[in-house]
Amino acid sequence: MDDPKPPLRARLRALRRAHVVSLGPSGRLEAERALADTLAPLLTGATCIASYAAQGAELDPRWIAASLAFPRVAGELLTFHLCRPDALRPGHRGIPEPASTAPLASPDIVLVPLVAAAPDGTRLGQGGGFYDRALSAMRRDRPIIAIGLAWDMQILPALPRDPWDERLDWIATPSRLVDCAITR
Fold this sequence. Notes:
Elements: H1 5-43, E1 49-50, E2 68-74, E3 77-82, E4 89-90, E5 96-97, E6 109-112, E7 116-117, E8 123-124, H2 130-141, E9 145-149, E10 170-172, E11 177-179
Parallel strand pairs: 1-2, 1-6, 6-9, 9-10
Antiparallel strand pairs: 2-3, 4-5, 7-8, 10-11
């Protein structure tokens, strides 16, 4: 049987791009700032928050004020390192990441990019499995909270899920929070 995820990803990426274009630069900026306000209650008390450098039409978390760690790809692994956003440099696939010398971090909250998400916490990512492997490894060591950042139009009623797909605990959009534990 063919994997339904690749064509779904392609279609959803196109819809996301069209959505962001429809917002215009000022609408996008307003929405990304609203995301920071929506997300703030979940970040209270966190000691280290892992974020990401948004690419293209991904929802950009740059307005979220916190102690941030950023992902770095090493082979098949994704590790998080303390780093200022302005110190990120092109890495795996040209995505900005910390230098290999940046201190390792142990985040208690991970902000996760996505192509789409479902209310039960199923996430459709870019297809490399980096976040699934990282979340699985971190969850074996300690409790963490995985929060998917999505435009409202990226939340779908259901998505295909493989056994290795790690679920999100929350989904945050510019307008709402979705507690994924409620729908499982």
